[in-house]
Amino acid sequence: MPTAVPDRAAGRSRSRTEVVGSARSFALPRGTGLTAARIGALTACQAAVMVGLGLLITGPARGLWPLTAEDAVNEDLERARTGTLTTLSSIASEAGNTLTVIAVTLLTCLGLLLIPRLPMWRQAVFLALAVSLQSLVFLAITESVDRHRPDVDRLDASPPTSSYTSGHTGAATALYAGLAVVALSRIRGPWRRIVAGLLLLLPLIVGAARLYRGMHHPTDVLGGLANGGLSLLIVGRALLVDRSVAAAPSGAGVPAARTAGEHRSGTTAVILNPTVTHEATRHDLRRILERHGHRDPVFLETTADDPGAGQTARAVREGATLVVVCGGDGTVRTVADALAESGVPLVIVPCGTGNLLARNLGLPLSPTAALDAALGGGPHRLDLGSIEGDGLTATRFAAMAGAGLDAAMMEHTDPRAKAHLGWAAYALAGIGTLRTPRMRVTIRLDGSPAFRRTARMVLVANVGTVQGGVTLLPEARPDDGLLDLLVLDPRGPVGWLRAVRTLLRGRAESHRPSAVHTIAADGAAQGGVPVEFFTFRRAELTFDTAQSRELDGDPVGPGRRLTAEVRPGALTVLLPSREK
């Protein structure tokens, strides 16, 4: 489960000039051949699976429930027909028609390629390829599986293809769910989720219309949803997640971004990640700062070699009385680490993908709204976590650190996918990490006797809520002088269901355990408890074998040891007034 959104662009990505240049280049990206072969192989597997399911439905399983109840469903829908519903179903069915799907796909791809300054070629290829491969698999299925259409009055002419799968539903799934992915990568603000949600509803509406019109059995519609969804997953993982397709070399003639030395000094420093903070955003931030009396702010850009620490130290040395950080969780962590114990207040402007600390502090997720609200508020002292380990220099973190499943997920998430999809990129990357082996870890809290656990993931947290509003550690507070520990160890489907239920419900009914309570619960934990919570001031975690590790969403390399300790009130942050 993702715990924070990495801001690796600040420390590992190319410069802003290179990113813009690569987007303008039409050179064939490196790794295209290997990726095409992988997509082809997985698509062949997809076709084999879908054909196998079709042969099972029309063969050995046709006399089993719920297949035996499908005719009754179609007959009930036939009896429920009305003039209005028939008209609406006709409109909905047309949304999945071949000509409609082709036209919408072509227009969308042309629009993505013609976007001024930054054509979105990767999303255009993703959408076109997903729709095309879905159609190819659909043709292979209908040639291999012979299933008659429902024995009811059909409102449309029966095409020569088999009833299994629903071609309208499959095409609608590949197109409209693909558009939802593009919307999440292109639209900013609260509308992105609304638009994506509406687009995701369209394949379901098309499928329901095809059932209503008597064109398919229920399992045909489910097969169409699965076929379109698998095509999206295969192409999305290859183009938007995997690292095998590198961006084309940058072109010439792109003006370089301004360096920090070109700005005048002042008492307000703005540390920004140029890969996620656009010129329009900078202009708006400057306007808001000046409106609140912060004249001539200095804008300092992070670089691949210095993701924020050097710029922050320089600002403090030159007498900055306020530091504003604009970026994702990685940039915020780096600046907070450099600013800790200085007494200089920090304003967090969320410009990244996950913005985990900003969410937990109740800040608006719009950069301009967050800055305006913070400048109208007051200073608050927040805790930081200090962490070190083998191969990991002692540093501070603001949100979460951990090892195991979530860290492996971070390692497998491409920064390009994060930029395109937001935190949903972790869901795609997580498919390959769910089989991460269980680890054994020795835990010592606040000097108490050590105890052993097996786990899929251990998470040390200063805050409790992750993306999507899911609260993993309900008692975690960034200003209570404590850190929280989550040990996740579900076993099998039942264990995962219990873990999800526990995490969704939280532990409001229980008190915060101390190290003493932890040791007392050790025996019970060995019985297969899927989720455990602890609080501490200092924790020592020792793994039997090297594990993937992450720090505020950034992979920090595998290791066998993590030592975490709270730094109470180490950071001063401006937060909106409660009255607002």
Q: Largest sheet at a glance? A: 6 strands, antiparallel
**Amino- and carboxy-terminal Cα gap:** 33 Å
Q: Indicate the structural class.
A: alpha+beta
> What is the count of structural domains?
3
Features:
disordered N terminus; 44% helix; alpha+beta; Tumour Suppressor Smad4; six-stranded antiparallel sheet; Vanadium-containing Chloroperoxidase, domain 1; Rossmann fold; 16 strands; 3 domains; 580 residues; single chain
What does it look like?
The chain has 20 helices and 16 strands. The longest helix has 27 residues. The two termini are 33 Å apart. Helix 2 runs antiparallel to helix 9, helix 4 packs across helix 8 and helix 6 runs antiparallel to helix 9. The N terminus is likely disordered. With 580 residues, the chain is an alpha+beta fold. The strands form three sheets. The chain has a six-stranded antiparallel sheet with strand order 6-5-16-13-8-9. The chain has a six-stranded antiparallel sheet with strand order 12-11-10-7-14-15. The chain has three domains: 210 residues, Vanadium-containing Chloroperoxidase, domain 1, CATH 1.20.144; 117 residues, Rossmann fold, CATH 3.40.50; 176 residues, Sandwich (Tumour Suppressor Smad4).
SSE map:
Blueprint: H1 16-24, H2 32-58, H3 70-79, H4 83-94, H5 98-113, H6 121-144, H7 167-186, H8 191-212, H9 218-241, E1 268-272, H10 279-291, E2 298-301, H11 309-317, E3 322-327, H12 329-339, E4 346-350, H13 356-360, H14 367-375, E5 378-389, E6 392-397, E7 400-404, H15 405-411, H16 415-421, H17 425-430, E8 439-445, E9 451-455, E10 457-461, E11 483-488, H18 492-505, H19 515-520, H20 522-525, E12 531-536, E13 538-547, E14 549-551, E15 554-555, E16 559-575
Parallel strand pairs: 1-2, 1-3, 3-4
Antiparallel strand pairs: 5-6, 5-16, 7-10, 7-14, 8-9, 8-13, 10-11, 11-12, 13-16, 14-15
